[in-house]
């Protein structure tokens, strides 16, 4: 009797995992298909407008109507409600890159223009990143069902440092990175140390390269942490020092845009600690919001 109940429970759990996986797979397919159809519809409008030139207002209206009618916004909303938290950012970034294409084509830029080609490349990269995250999610479901663990790989040690920059309102400056192993995630400016470089020196250099800010000084050490990812095709285990600095609320310097693109940085944002803690976004380190909230909270009075 007892063994029958255990077998029934195991079968029920396996079936539930299979159903959940299939539901997510259907959502992923619908979302990516809708994004592709929206892009194709806007391209068709732009191509037609090149054959039969119209006023700027008419072009803008037709491109935006093609975007709206595709249902891509509804597909995105359905996906972000149902998918695991680590996939929300990837889908959002893919959707935002599609909106950039919409805005470029609505402005009248032809398909062979630099703005459209840049937007198209960015959307392709964002979509591929989302696809990779989706495959990881669906693959992890198969491992959970079979009970097998992913095979470990040798990793190269790497030392790195980052700076959590807080503005006068207590918001933290974050960059949205796209990594070939772990996908889209948010992290502070920073990166690997050069030979002979201290963590503070490396953090300051990396921040200058990625933001163009050269007037900040790393303050107290917030934490250290270690994590695995792949860099330039090499699996690494990175040990990071994270410092805190305070500065004005501002945008990154435009001269650092090339460095950000080279590092796979998709976007940047000032984020409140409360919003970050509640977002469910993939963040390096995962406990960043909690650590900064504790840092900003007044201590007990004497």
Automatic annotation (TrEMBL):
Cofactor(s) this protein cannot do without: Mg(2+)
Highest taxon listed in the record's lineage: Bacteria
Transmembrane region(s): none
The keyword S-adenosyl-L-methionine appears for this protein: no
Listed GO MF terms: hydrolase activity
Chain segments carrying region Disordered: 109-158
Domain Nudix hydrolase: 156-296
PROSITE patterns membership: NUDIX (PS51462), NUDIX_BOX (PS00893)
Bias (Basic residues): 142-158
SUPFAM superfamilies registered for this protein in UniProt: Nudix
Entry annotated with the keyword Hydrolase: yes
Keywords, ordered alphabetically: Hydrolase, Magnesium
InterPro entries with a match to the protein in the record: Nudix_hydrolase (IPR020476), NUDIX_hydrolase-like_dom_sf (IPR015797), NUDIX_hydrolase_CS (IPR020084), NUDIX_hydrolase_dom (IPR000086)
Protein family per UniProt: Belongs to the Nudix hydrolase family.
The protein's name: NUDIX hydrolase
Source organism per UniProt: Streptomyces sp. R35
Organism phylogeny: Bacteria, Bacillati, Actinomycetota, Actinomycetes, Kitasatosporales
